[in-house]
Task: structure prediction
Amino acid sequence: MTKARNISYLSRFKRIIGALLGLVLLLVVLTIQWQPSVPENPTLDNLAINTIEQVIVDNAPASISAPGEVSLHLDNEELNLLAAFLLQNVPSLNSVTSNVTIDDGNASVDMSIPLRTPLKTSYLNLHTQVRQVEDQIQLYSVRVGYLPIPSALVHFLRTRAERQLASTYVNYQQIYDLQRSIRTIDFHKDALLIGLDWDPGLLAQVQTQAEQLLLSAEDKDKIVFYFGEIISIARAQDENTRSISLDLLLVPLFNMAHERILSGANPLSENRALLQALSLYVNESDLSQLVEPPSAAALINPRRLNVTIQRRTDLAQHFTSSAAMSATVGAGVAGILSTSKEVHDARYRSGFSFSDLTANTAGVALGMAATKTARDAELFAQRIASATQESDYMPPVSRENAGLTENDFSAQFTDRNSPAYRAKLAEIDAQIADLPIYIEH
Result:
């Protein structure tokens, strides 16, 4: 009897295991596919990058210093270019392809995520549909391969993800709060229309959050440390001093970073935090989101000195903000934001400036070099710590081609796809590549 019972239990166990394996196999068949639903992203050549920059400029307000309502208009092609650009500039997502299709009152988003194995690459194909409900966007359908995902499960996973992000990253709430500026969202045939309450401080907020995107508690502590070092340097200056070269901050800060790296600190996070702290100080950004008074009053209201490159505060501001953004969100995002600003200036403000563009490009290059790999970050901190002058990291600029209006720019360079303009950019890149800090000894 006992033997028969054991055989019965064994048979039942085998059936359960077989059922579970069958269920797993069914889920694999339903969700994993051999072909991507989105074969490829749009090609991000010079024309595509210029189109993205122009989209940003065309949708920006004429006066960024005046409050008001802004209407954004993005068609299917522009949305797909933006999506491809963002995916390709996030290292963990650069193999993902996507496609956005807009219709009246709703939109579809398809994504293909490759699952690579030594034998064959398969794909996780996601199909998501959203619809316009009054002035809100509602997610109403998600499918993975052939398998529809229940809306309750989608809501649960989204809520869990938001909680995880909020508990992990200190500036997640600030990023989330930026959504409050959106007043209306409308899906029309082949176009997305967004009504936005523009506040003069919005651009600064976006830039700060881009520089500190998904900042962890450890990153925050390091930024506060380097910001404190900057304040110490500022306090040590003569009381009549109003302006200092970026050298006076950059070199000792990287000396400190190199010492901490030799003591076991992570080279990538040290350099990234250093550049973020430097940008916060040089651009006079608010540090209150990282520290709380009254114990940190000196950090929130420090002694402010004008920091310059080639005796110009604007060059130091362009350089440090681009370096911080490049170190955090990548060279692509930093580059496109900085160029878009120059194009906006050409249309509405002080004009297109190649000297500003040079500072932006040099800052991007420094941010890339300082955070490329852990070994590269360590070597770079050592090299720049021995810099002796500004021309070690920033090529000299002149007032030539400064303040070009949109018409002046067109008369001289036709457009940003012209050989003349591309040659000018290549010249700037070559000047930066020849700087001493990028030459390994």
The CA atoms of residues 16 and 22 lie 10 Å apart. Residues 202-438 form one domain. The first helix runs from residue 2 to 31.
